[in-house]
């Protein structure tokens, strides 16, 4: 059995006033949401294989752009990728940039993840991003995966899979 309650006005417990219910949700905005609530989600995908021989970080094609609705919003970045290295005694690192700034520091390195290949065989290692950022802006902000090697060649997404990077705005 289904029940419906229809009313236009609720009376307060003390009986001293009423609460009008007409169109209460129509005025809901991101500004009226409580802290911690998700305001928007943006997802971007790429199947591009990115190859580098650079010993300095270079951008991959894996990026997402989000425009925060408030300067005090937090942005949660989620991504799962794959590092690949084919030469022995070499490193391949990846990290996360906000626009032109590397925003990840793990220990003394400016990298979020890396792999070392100690054989001549083809090696693959997962690279995961789960980072909460405070960009302090309402301008369009781009988050991009960057990578570099110490010698030889490294490939990001060597198998050309559909990789996604997601930006979630959380009310601060």
Tell me the number of structural domains: 1
* Share of helix, binned: under 10%
Question: Could you give the count of β-strands?
Answer: 13
Give the DSSP E fraction (strand runs of 2 or more residues): over 45%
Q: Give the helix tally.
A: 0
CATH architecture heading: Sandwich
Distance from first to last alpha carbon: 42 Å
Instruction: Supply Rg.
Output: 23 Å
CATH topology description: Jelly Rolls
Mean pLDDT: 84
What low-confidence regions span 5 or more consecutive residues with pLDDT below 50? Answer: none
Outline the structure in words.
The chain is mostly beta strands and about 170 residues long. It has one domain: Sandwich (Jelly Rolls). About 0% of the residues lie in helices and about 50% in strands. The relative contact order is 0.31. The model has no long low-confidence stretch (mean pLDDT about 85).
List keywords for this structure.
single chain; 172 residues; mainly beta; Jelly Rolls; five-stranded antiparallel β-sheet; 13 strands; 0% helix
């Amino acid at each position: 059995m289904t029940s419906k309650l229809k009313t236009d006005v609720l009376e307060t417990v003390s009986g001293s006033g009423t609460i009008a219910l007409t169109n209460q949700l129509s005025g809901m905005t991101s500004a009226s949401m409580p802290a911690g609530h998700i305001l928007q989600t943006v997802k971007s995908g790429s199947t591009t294989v990115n190859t580098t021989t650079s010993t300095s970080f270079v951008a991959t094609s894996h990026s997402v752009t989000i425009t925060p609705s408030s300067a005090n919003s937090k942005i949660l970045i989620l991504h799962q990728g794959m590092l690949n290295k084919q030469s022995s005694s070499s490193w391949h690192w990846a990290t996360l940039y906000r626009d032109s700034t590397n925003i990840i520091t793990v220990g003394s390195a400016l990298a979020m993840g890396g792999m070392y290949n100690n054989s001549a065989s083809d090696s693959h290692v997962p690279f995961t991003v789960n980072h909460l950022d405070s960009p302090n802006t309402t301008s369009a902000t781009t988050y991009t995966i960057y990578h570099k090697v110490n010698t030889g060649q490294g490939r990001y997404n060597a198998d050309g899979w559909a990789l996604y990077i997601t930006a979630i705005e959380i009310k601060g």
